Amino acid sequence: MTEHIRDGFQNYSDTAAVFIDIAKAFDRVWIDGLIYKMHKLKISKQLILLMQSYLKHGNFIVRVVKDLSTPRTTEAGVVRGSRLGPHCFIFINDIYQMPNTQLCLFADDTAIMSTGPERHTNVTSLN
Predict the structure, then answer these.
(1) Which of 28, 123, 124, 126 is at 20 to 30 A from 96, Cα to Cα?
(2) One matching Pfam family, short form (predicted)?
(3) Residues near 43 by Cβ (< 8 Å), separated by ≥ 6?
């Protein structure tokens, strides 16, 4: 992203950007949708089964002070802070790209940039 902006600057072009961050994205990953997308991307069946086992069969317990909840099964989300987590955001990899735009994607963070010729505006002094 910085290289794209730097290149535009060196070529006397302006770059505009829109930054998108999905709130609580790691907690909201739709596991069945992720598995479906993996099939569409023709990822190997062995890797899909491994990911499905890793994502769908997790259990968790919530502790508040000394009280523990009953065990629950994970229904959505990926482990935050894991090495695998950011790679589970393949939902946005096929986002439509408009002509003359650059997409920068990392996990749930997206930057949409467009570079064009520098605009010169006349600035009038108040003096």
Answers:
(1) 28
(2) RVT_1
(3) none
What span, in angstroms and rounded, lies between the C-alpha atoms of 66 and 96? Answer: 49
Angle at CA 40, nearest 5°, toward 86 and 102? 55
Do the strands 13-21 and 109-117 form a parallel or antiparallel pair, or are they unpaired?
antiparallel
Q: Count up the domains in the chain and report the number.
A: 1
Provide the residue range defining the domain that includes 42.
1-125
Q: What is the pLDDT of residues 41-85, one digit of tens each?
A: 898 999 889 888 878 777 778 889 999 998 877 777 776 667 777
Phi-psi bin for 41: left (phi > 0), alpha (psi -120 to 50), beta? alpha
> pTM value?
0.54
